[in-house]
Design a protein that fits this description.
7-stranded mixed beta sheet, mainly beta, single chain, globular, 126 residues
């Protein structure tokens, strides 16, 4: 079992930057691929979409099309923490952001991840 706790969400203005953190505990999370997904606010039935993912070693990253040039995912395995730095934020980045983890090395879809955090709200005002 792996427990994930997100932090760093909040309200920012368009163009600002924000850093999310996700700390993992439990079964050797340092080996796991980890990712950030997001869901638009007010629609619990909407599917989550990939923001970014990173392999266990941190050597390989993947980004969703809408964030590739603005967001950066990284990890500190000594602290079992993955980060998402969001630059040049836009109102359409407003969402609940979820951290996810899985033993597989290369997950990029929600179905690839078995462990999920509770989510953190990010709101970008125009």
């Amino acid at each position: 079992q792996v427990r994930l706790v997100e932090s760093g969400g909040g309200l920012v203005q368009a163009g600002a930057s924000l850093r999310l953190s996700c700390t993992a505990s439990g079964d050797t999370p340092g080996r796991y691929s980890m990712a950030w997904f997001r869901r638009p606010p007010g629609n619990e039935r909407a599917a989550v979409s990939i923001v970014a993912s990173i392999t266990g070693s941190g050597a390989v990253t993947y980004y969703g099309d809408s964030v590739e040039d603005r967001f950066n995912i990284s990890r500190d395995n000594a602290k079992n923490t993955v980060f998402l730095v969001m630059n040049g934020m836009k109102p359409e980045d407003t969402a609940v952001y979820y951290c996810a983890a899985d033993p597989r090395p290369d997950g990029v879809t929600p179905e690839d991840f078995n462990y999920w955090g509770q989510g953190t709200q990010v709101t970008v005002s125009s």
